[in-house]
Specification:
The chain has 262 residues and is an alpha/beta fold. It has 10 helices and 12 strands.
Length: 262
């Protein structure tokens, strides 16, 4: 019995020691020792992260993620996954960072550490082009919208009384609106405009322009990420100072969205 208790106590000690080491470790040092940074991204949310005609992963966040990896002196290992798994994966240590147009909110800041903002993007309310009943978000009461469940847009829709149907991609969202299976969606203006460039005949319209979102890169919230976050912020500042951040914004969004609107 004593041996069994000793074994249990030893196992518990090892678990606690590992947990303490994780909390007190240095994620940047770990990344540099292993030679790559694990970057979570969707791969199907243009112009942030998507595949071009040759199936190469490209996008605004992809290029910035690569620049961050270069600044750290490591390889960028992009890991594509569904939106709902991105933040959970960062929090659980599956990914080191997320580069996927993640919006900063005070609620998320309770669970994640965020880099300095690198993009400011307005949101829009989108409906089918023959919909005349939904003109503002106040008209969403009792209506149905489509969004990825853990997105800030789903939260906004619910705040205005809508029922949210979960989806995986923007394309799925738009199809549900077109088919009339949902009444509307709230989404990033840049993503909707990018979709309309690719699908100019899509029977949808922007019913209302909304306030902007602040995009920043999240890492898990513990002391082990402090040096990584400092290095990421340094890389972002260097890109801001030499103009690369603004150039990438113009390349993918058609305008410099790297500063807050005045």
């Amino acid at each position: 019995m004593m041996k069994k208790m000793t074994a249990i106590l030893l196992a518990l000690t090892l678990v606690l020691t590992a947990a303490f080491a994780l909390a007190e470790g240095d994620l940047l040092k770990e990344i540099q020792e292993r030679g790559y940074i694990s970057i979570a991204t969707e791969g199907d949310w243009a112009p942030y992260t998507y595949h071009d005609e040759s199936n190469k992963l490209v996008g605004y966040d992809v290029e910035i993620g690569q620049a961050i990896a270069d600044a750290l002196g490591v390889e960028a290992k992009f890991e594509e996954t569904g939106w709902d798994a991105i933040l959970a994966g960062v929090k659980g240590g599956r990914f080191d960072i997320a580069c996927n147009g993640v919006s900063y909110t005070e609620e998320r800041a309770e669970s994640y550490n965020f880099s300095t903002p690198y993009l400011y993007t307005p949101s829009v309310l989108v409906v089918k082009n023959d919909n005349e009943t939904i003109k503002t978000v106040e008209d969403l009461q009792g209506k149905k919208t489509a969004n990825t469940i853990s997105s800030i847009y789903a939260g906004m829709a619910e705040e205005y009384g809508a029922t949210v149907q979960g989806v995986d991609t923007l394309a799925d969202t738009i199809q549900l609106v077109i088919q009339g299976r949902v009444d509307a969606t709230i989404n990033a203006q840049v993503s909707i405009e990018d979709y309309l460039k690719e699908h100019p005949d899509a029977p949808i319209k922007i019913a209302q322009y909304l306030e902007g979102d602040i995009n920043a890169f999240p890492v898990r919230k513990d002391a082990s990420t402090d040096t990584l976050l400092a290095a990421v912020n340094e890389a972002l500042q260097a890109m801001r100072d030499d103009g690369r951040l603004a150039e990438l914004s113009v390349k993918y969004f058609g305008a410099d969205l790297t500063n807050p609107a005045e």
